[in-house]
């Protein structure tokens, strides 16, 4: 499935650890709850960028489209949860997003560029994780996650193209910086399972 998105695969530093895949399958309800939170946060991030950068026409267009899609995905996840009697509860966020965002530069346009690069990593990793889970899921969930792959890959492309557009200079070094951070966050063990967590810590 990911072979259809070679640029996305090349962008990510590594595949998801097999131990994370097994952890996800053992925590399917938690996977769905956190997935719902991720979609809601993604829509919120897109809206925040629209409010903060009102003079960036291309950003406004792409983030408006992205926010609508993310909210639709939230509704779809929530609908599946309701059918399965899974309550939507508060969860503490994983260290993944914070681990990336704490390195965002504070001056513009560097702040915007870093935020967009991180958005590209979040969307690319989401796409990769859905893809590795699909062969192991029941028919309903597998069909649902397969339906998300194309939009998640497009969101990755949108974030990356916007970062390139607004940087005014090559961003390869900055991508490499965040790629190294992302790799560390994905392979380092975690205490709590999340969509973007590392593998479980050994007991």
UniProtKB/TrEMBL annotation:
GO molecular function: tRNA 2-(methylsulfanyl)-N(6)-isopentenyladenosine(37) hydroxylase activity
GO BP term, example: tRNA modification
Top-level lineage group: Bacteria
The name this protein goes by in its record: tRNA-(Ms[2]io[6]A)-hydroxylase
Organism: Maribrevibacterium harenarium
